[in-house]
Amino acid sequence: VRIVESGGGVVQAGGSLRLSCATSGFTFGDYTIGWFRQAPGKEREAVSCLSNRDGIRYYADSVKGRFTISRDSAKNTVYLQMNSLKLEDTAVYYCYSGGRWGQGTQVTVSS
């Protein structure tokens, strides 16, 4: 089982990034998949999740209206489109599914 995140980087406040979470080694639709983030000195928090059962999307209040989670089942990949980025979005972003975490991708929002 592999989970690999990509797409992080440095972006100015107000900008956009799209993170990708590529999975392999398990049936993509068998598990809910989620994005989490951890800022320095803070606990890891849930950002957005996509239910494998009914397709319901969850968003943390802090990202509602700015972030969008989507998936491409043919590519076994989930995306997190992040718009109107704020300084407080700076964190390492992790993908989680099927009991596994990816290695994370750094997102840094600069002023």
Task: Tell me about this structure.
This protein has 111 residues and is mainly beta. The protein has strands at residues 2-6, 9-12, 17-24, 33-38, 45-50, 57-59, 67-72, 77-82, 91-97, 100-101, 105-110. The strands form 2 sheets. Strands 2, 4, 5, 6, 9, 10 and 11 form a 7-stranded mixed sheet that branches. It is globular, with a radius of gyration of 13 Å. It starts with a strand and ends with a strand. The mean pLDDT is 94.
Describe the secondary-structure layout.
Elements (H helix, E strand, L loop, with lengths): L1 E5 L2 E4 L4 E8 L8 E6 L6 E6 L6 E3 L7 E6 L4 E6 L8 E7 L2 E2 L3 E6 L1
Parallel strand pairs: 2-11
Antiparallel strand pairs: 1-3, 3-8, 4-5, 4-9, 5-6, 7-8, 9-10, 9-11
Keywords:
single chain, 111 residues, mainly beta, seven-stranded mixed β-sheet, four-stranded antiparallel β-sheet
* Secondary-structure element order, N to C: EEEEEEEEEEE
Which term fits the overall shape? globular
Helicity, as a percent range: under 10%
User: What would the average pLDDT be, to the nearest integer?
Assistant: 94
SS field, number of helical segments: 0
Give the termini separation. Answer: 38 Å
- The fraction of residues assigned to DSSP E strands is over 45%
Largest sheet: 7 strands, mixed
Using only C-alpha atoms, the radius of gyration works out to: 13 Å
Q: Uncertain regions: pLDDT < 50 for 5+ in a row?
A: none
The structural class is: mainly beta
Number of strands: 11
